């Protein structure tokens, strides 16, 4: 998609929904010398980051959930799901996929999956009304009962609409109706700022996110966690249907299984600085406590949304009760003009990207460091000044 | 592949064939704040890096060679070739590939391509005798005349054997025998330290490399350049045969075409810090002059190889006249023991990875910063001390 080039300034306060601002610790970790990707130091760092990812998702080591960290943007998460879970032999009729769509990113996930489906299978979708995650339960049950679905995808937060899906509700319906179906979460704008507790909410099979969102690192990593039954499916049952190298998890999972045991293994050179920065960022997140971090994002988001709606009398793209907590999408008159004015005030916000309302709204990111030091208050003041002007 | 975990030290001198040491400028560029991936600053930086890549390969802007930079390891280069050039409809018999193999990495390229070939096509290979790039010319001509090859791949330097391919010779044979065949160069251990001048040596269609080799950046980028006829083939003739998103160049090439004109375009969030670091590193390389840089690598490599062979009386894996200039592979007794001793002297070298001779040799990287400040001399002294001991 062609986008407007924001007129930013290097001194500006970055308040887009990713890349987000880095903490000083993370930025310092990024600017370190290269080290051997098979040396003791890096091996220990990678192990540490992988173990922390298990903690982030609240799963015990012994439960066998396998975390992964791969050099790429978060977009590759869609390919990891398509290539490893949906690919099948041409005679297999069981590899259908169902996408629960809440915006631009769910739609892209849907299109990406289509290109991995065999002739005998379909990729279906259920689209929630704009700004909600109201998936009709009867329709969902009917669909899941109509044929065998290999997987269902849920975009936990769609970054295009700032809409949050209530996983507790949806996951239960899927599990009850079709327990063999893999439940896949696109957690790109949720992991690290929304509740995604795999220890508490059982049944989630695959989560991926990107490093530059609420994880608080620079862009360049796709990371996540995979349930034991999906690890087994990829490494055994489906291994011969998976194509290529880089998006092929039969290449990557043994690397993760090795590093998590503090043993180097080579498939492709890992981005040593980014993984070091990830490890530092995850340390900070776990030190703060995931529950507390999620609560703080919720509380700050609630404050901001309340001010926008009640004080500035603006309308949100997300309907009440469906708002994500790491970003806010706000309808405004002439978004391009407003972004320019706010930019002149030293704050970088993002434009709209949902095709139906692209030129009617702006997006404000409030993840990680940005909610800690008065940045969001500055955004509110700048919006107030420029909207009321 | 499971590898020995080197007992490195953060103060050690890193002399493996990638990741290589960073210059201070590049390291500083890496440790900078995140900025908007669609903002004026990043757009300008990305444009600048892309234009510099054209200069690195000595092609004029107007000739239409399209550079690309993607967040991933260099390994993804194989998938970019497989998915975009080799994929075809099942009835197409013209999508055969020929791999010219000089070691472990050529072999991996071969295996990766196989997984993209349709039922009607084959991936063939010609293997040069170990330590040489002696491809039998008659065999090459016979193969190329026997059926229609969509592409031939050449691993310019195979990092497993430190063997260099004489491109002038091979490219001419391919062009003369089968001019419609795309010539693909795996330049992972060559771009930035070996001569690869697309302005002088006409006929090369696709080159890729990784950021952590002679380009002098941290790991995390796959980058390269594509000829106009291959850009056209991907975006038009073959577009419907290319699967998925992340390794699908119909998604990426329009992004590169846009940024090179200083216009942001979104497909996946680019790694802003890594691209900033790339831009800084390319500035340094172009300032030095590519020809001069290649000569300096050659001269330092010749000096080192001469000392190893004539003073230390050790044997190289590469046969005389076939040695790469960014690394040296040396047969030694008990490599694991030697690497440990050298490690204790504060230098990190790499072990062998070619399956036939895996436990018989070591590898020394000498790319970029490492050849400028006496590091290779230190390696020689350490080898001398520990080999003669």
Automatic annotation (TrEMBL), chains A, B:
The keyword Cell membrane does not apply. GO terms for biological process: glycine biosynthetic process, by transamination of glyoxylate. Residues 28-352 form the Aminotransferase class V domain. The keyword Transferase applies. Keywords: Aminotransferase, Pyridoxal phosphate, Transferase. It comes from the Eukaryota. Its EC number is 2.6.1.44. Its cofactor is pyridoxal 5'-phosphate. Substrate binds at residue 363. The modification N6-(pyridoxal phosphate)lysine is found at residue 213. This is alanine--glyoxylate transaminase. It comes from Saccharomycodes ludwigii. The lineage of its organism: Eukaryota, Fungi, Dikarya, Ascomycota, Saccharomycotina.
